[in-house]
Structure formats: C-alpha cells, structure tokens
Amino acid sequence: MDSAASRAMRSRLRSTFHAGLVLPHGTESHLAGALQHTLAHPGSMIRAELAFRVASSLRMNEDRAENLAIAIEYFHTASLLFDDLPAMDDAELRRGVPCAHHVYGESATILAALALVNRAYSLMWRSVAGLPAETQTATLSYLERHLGVAGLLNGQSQDLHYEDLAWQLRAPQTIAMGKTVSLIRLALVLPAIAAQARPREIHLLDRLAIFWGLSYQTLDDLKDLLYTDDAHGKTAARDAVLNRPNLALAIGIPESFARIDRLMNLAGRAIAQLIERRARLAFLREFRVQFNKEIANLSEASLTRAS
C-alpha cells in the first residue's frame, strides 16, 4: 500500500471512529461530554489499522473490515476508560489530555465505556452477519475468550491485585498475556478467523500477536520509567507507586531492551513465513519500522537518564 493510500485509509478509520457512535438527541450532558471527549482523541489507532489491513489483505469486504476494525478500537478505548479510573490506575492524563473522569466524573466515564462496548458488539455482528455459521461462531467465540474472563478481564484483575498473587503468577509476562496480548490477538487473529484464513496463517498471526504484544508491553513498562507525563501522553511512573507488574522494574532497563530485540527477531521470522504464504501481508513489515522508532526514542531517554 503506497503512502497516499495509507493516509487515506488512516483518515477513513479516524473519521469512522469519531462518527461511528452517534449520540441521540437528548443524551445527558455528562455522558455526551465523556463520549465526545473520548472520540475526539483516538490515539494511534494501531489496532484498528492492523485489523483493517489484515482483513483486507485476506480479501474481506471493506465495509466488513471497517466494522471489525472500529469495533476492536472501541473495545480497546473502553478498556482505557476503565483502566484510568480511581479504582484502577487513578490516572490524570491519557493521550495528552485530562482523563474523562477528571472532566465529566466517574459515573459518566463508566457509562461512556459501556456505550463503546455496546456499539463495538453491534459493529462486530455487522462484520460477521451473512458469513457461514461456523465462521460466525468461531469469530465471536474467539472475541469472547480474549476479551472476557479468560483474557483481558482476568489480566486486568491480576494487574490490580499483583501483590496478592501467588509467586508463580507474579511474572509480568503472565499478566501481559492476559491484558496486552489479548488485544493484539483481536487485531491480528480475529480478522483472519472472520476472513476464513488458512489454519497455518492463523497460527502464525497468533505467534506474531504474542511477540508483538509482549514487546509492546515491555516498551510501555520502559516508558513508565523513562518518560515524563508530557512525553508519555499519560500519567507516568505509576507502576512503582501502585506496586503493579513492570518488567523493566523486575529485570532492569538494559535487559528489557535485549528482550524486546529477541521478541522482535522472532516476530520478523513469523512475518517472513506469513509473506511466503500470502504476499499481501507484506505490510506487516511496516510495523517493525514503527517499533524501531519507539525503541530508538526510548534508548535516547535511557541514555539521558543515565547521564
């Protein structure tokens, strides 16, 4: 995909993210404000872009692909609204602006998150409607498994009660598999299931989701240590204060960078095997470039901190 087409695709997804949840006339002002505040600050939308491009590369209809991609982004955004609440991370900033609960209140923010989840399920159903029954079942079952108690919700609960876990569950990687990897799996594997990809392709995308998800979580852990609130775009230095899992705190900054490098090399092998089977998935290499930029920025921050 050339750069002009990439920009057009990203613009389309951002427009749909913003306009995809229409507020009925008479929506209560706090709820409306929390939703408008959230929809006006979509972040990188990397999960939506991944989902859309995987689905499109596997020949899914563009409207189905867009519905699926925005659904995943709404699920992710709802999880952030919950994450930032005082009962969880008690954050002040998200995506460079005050968290919704600081502006519109906790109750409105909870309702806004539920509105996003509700809309996301509606879009998911639109995405799979009309597909073979076994494909619908496989897609929606996968969504439930990784978004629900077996995936994201359990990972978040483990994160919140980290100090109370048995020692064998206190590995940051275990919790990252529930929280971060689950959402990356929805962006990479779920579109492949819905698009009826081959089993080997689905397997390789699942491996890629694990490697990328663990890399992304390690990057985020490093950002929590190395970045200020302004540089991070959200409240930093929370993990140590709240006694939350953080790999960089557990194994050190140099070891964390080395771990990311190992995981990204494994991801590169998975991508190469995917491209051998389906050349249209070559766009996945572009995301390694984005990771490299983030790693370079963090390395510079690490050097600055050391000096």
Structure report:
- With 307 residues, the chain is mainly alpha-helical.
- The protein has one domain (3-306): Farnesyl Diphosphate Synthase.
- 74% of the residues lie in helices and 1% in strands.
- A two-stranded antiparallel ribbon has the order 1-2.
- A hairpin with a 2-residue loop joins strand 1 and strand 2.
- The model has no long low-confidence stretch (mean pLDDT 90).
Order of helices and strands: HHHHEEHHHHHHHHHHH
CATH topology: Farnesyl Diphosphate Synthase
What name goes with the CATH superfamily?
A: Farnesyl Diphosphate Synthase
Percent strand: under 5%
Uncertain runs with pLDDT below 50, 5 residues or more? none
- For the record, the CATH architecture stands as Orthogonal Bundle
Give the overall pLDDT as a whole number.
Answer: 90
Number of E strands = 2
Give the N-terminus to C-terminus distance in angstroms.
Answer: 42 Å
Count the DSSP helices.
Answer: 15
Query: Biggest β-sheet, characterized?
Result: 2 strands, antiparallel
Strand order of the largest sheet: 1-2
Q: What is the percent of helical residues?
A: over 70%
Q: What Rg do the Cα atoms give?
A: 19 Å
Q: Tell the overall outline.
A: globular
Structural class: mainly alpha
| Level-1 CATH class name | Mainly Alpha
Quick structural gist:
The chain contains 15 helices and two strands.
Helix and strand arrangement:
Elements (H helix, E strand, L loop, with lengths): L2 H17 L9 H11 L6 H12 L4 H23 L8 E2 L2 E2 L1 H5 L1 H23 L4 H15 L4 H9 L11 H23 L4 H28 L2 H4 L5 H5 L4 H5 L1 H25 L6 H23 L1
Antiparallel strand pairs: 1-2
Helix pairs in contact: 2-6, 3-4, 3-9, 4-6, 4-9, 7-9, 8-9, 9-10, 10-14, 10-15, 14-15
